[in-house]
Amino acid sequence: MTSIGQSRPRRSRVAGLAAAALLASLVTVVPMQSAQAAVTLLSQGRPATASSTENGGVPAAAAVDGNPATRWSSQFSDPQWLRVDLGSTAAISQVVLQWEGAYATAYQIQVSNDGNNWTSIYSTTTSTGGTQTLNVTGNGRYVRMYGTVRNGGYGYSLWEFKVYGDNGTTPPATGYVLANPQVTGVTPSTYNPPHAYFHEFQANCATSHDRPDDPIVYPGLPGASHMHTFMGNRTTNAASTLTSLNAGGTTCLAPGDKSGYWMPTMYNGTQVVNPVGPQVIYYKTGVNDYTSVRPFPPGLRFVVGSPNATADQFMFGSVEGWECGESYHNADFPAYCPVGTQVNVRYQAPSCWNGLYLDTPDHKSHMAYPVNLVCPTSHPVALPMIEFKMAFPASGDMSQVRLSSGRGYSFHYDFFNAWDPAVQAALVNHCVRGGLQCNARGYDETQPGRGAALNANYQLP
User: Fold this and answer.
1) Strand, coil or helix: what is 316?
2) Quick one: DSSP state of residue 38?
3) What is the DSSP code (8-state) at residue 428?
4) Which range, 27-31, 126-130, 184-188, 317-321, has the best average confidence (pLDDT)?
5) Is 383:293 a contact under the CB 8 Å cutoff?
């Protein structure tokens, strides 16, 4: 079996496409039952899971990303399945499978309302691979390909798994915000650029207000969230949109950064503990090829971490955990911090985007962390990696210190991009792609000859 991180030898992509095209011209599989015509593509960009994957480069999501150059591939055993969650019950009228060279000779298309109990709406034991268009009739929220016999010694592999039908709404379903334009046809960069120890700039933003709102998780519902501490845009509330944020003021040094940043409020007993002064929000590269990083699209939003995280899950995204004095790598608050010090946390966001959506129902699945410093094929667009570096003035006995979301490992934060596009592009190009360690002006003190991206007023020159 191929080891993790490796791929088995493949025929050339051109030859593979030619073969697939030939098979597609010869094999269009249509079940005997009558069915209505396809209505809408429901599966693209939806959450997908699988019984297994061959390695990290061929995830389930790659079969529903709309990119014919990415694929899902399973382990080399039977049975295996690929499932897509449409988000709501839909009338399924057509399923299209674009097989790679490793295909199923026997499989079923199944639907389910709960993801546990399945009904078959198509079955074959004589599949010959290629592109197969199945006109079907069925209803369900979940649709899966359930493979029972492979054509060879490899697994099951699909370039695309497309489900068409009618879910009674205008796609995309609730919770999906389409990017306009969508970014497609991107291949994760494996280029190894000249070494640069730093490739970052800072957004220095102070806290502005505390409010039990979350315009990403609970849009339009004031008071529905636990208490959050807001930085950056001064107007952020439950009703915030890109338009309202663009019209607001900011606590960030760069007036072009009107983004909303927020995190759970810290308490010491009943007393609110807010960071004092501008806090450091790094914009870095999360991938090896820092020259491939592009600015955030306007309106992109996501949540980093989770209020329901375990200690181990929190530590995955943290740099050092909670720290103060000589105490480091803490998932929860230290029991004691030297009097007069601050308790600090640094937490990194995913930096790979699928290019399709500005937001998704879970506020996370359109983003992914790099794998071995390369974006996964399901999320091939490299964006800046945001890193919160927060310092809270809490010290001494820490037994009464908590977050509005719970224990220290419930720390998380939200980001709603409202940068002026030209200002953000100047900083990304000069500092991240330029391999510099920049302050909020885009100036690297160790390389003064390289100049600054912004003037003394933190604006474009």
Assistant:
1) helix
2) P
3) I
4) 126-130
5) yes
User: What is the Cα–Cα distance from 64 to 100, expressed in whole angstroms?
Assistant: 14
DSSP letter assigned to residue 361: T
What's the whole-number mean pLDDT along residues 275-299? 98
List the end-to-end C-alpha distance of the chain, in Å, as a whole number: 57
Q: Say what the pTM is.
A: 0.67
CA 373 – CA 257 distance, rounded (Å): 27
d(CA 213, CA 225): 5
d(Cα 180, Cα 430) in Å, to the nearest integer? Answer: 25
- In angstroms, what CA-CA distances link 252 with 292, 443, 458? 26, 16, 10
Reading the block at residue 347, the tokens are 């937490």
Q: Is 80 exceeded by the pLDDT of residue 60? A: yes
pLDDT (0 to 100) of residue 8: 36
Rounded to an integer, what is the distance from CA 213 to the centroid of its chain?
A: 22
Higher pLDDT, residue 368 or 24 = 368
The string of pLDDT tens digits covering residues 238-274 is 999 999 999 999 999 999 999 999 999 999 999 999 9
Asked whether residue 62 carries a pLDDT value surpassing 70, the answer given is yes
Q: Looking at residue 169, what is its pLDDT?
A: 56
Residue 379 and residue 186: Cα distance in Å, rounded? 9
Burial of 378 (0-12, 13-18, 19+ CB in 10 A): buried
Distance of alpha carbon 375 from alpha carbon 267, whole angstroms: 37
**Backbone phi, then psi, for 25, in 5-degree steps?**
-75, -20
DSSP codes, 154-176: S--EEEEEEEEEE-SS-SSPTT-
- As a whole number of angstroms, the distance between CA 158 and CA 99 comes to 4
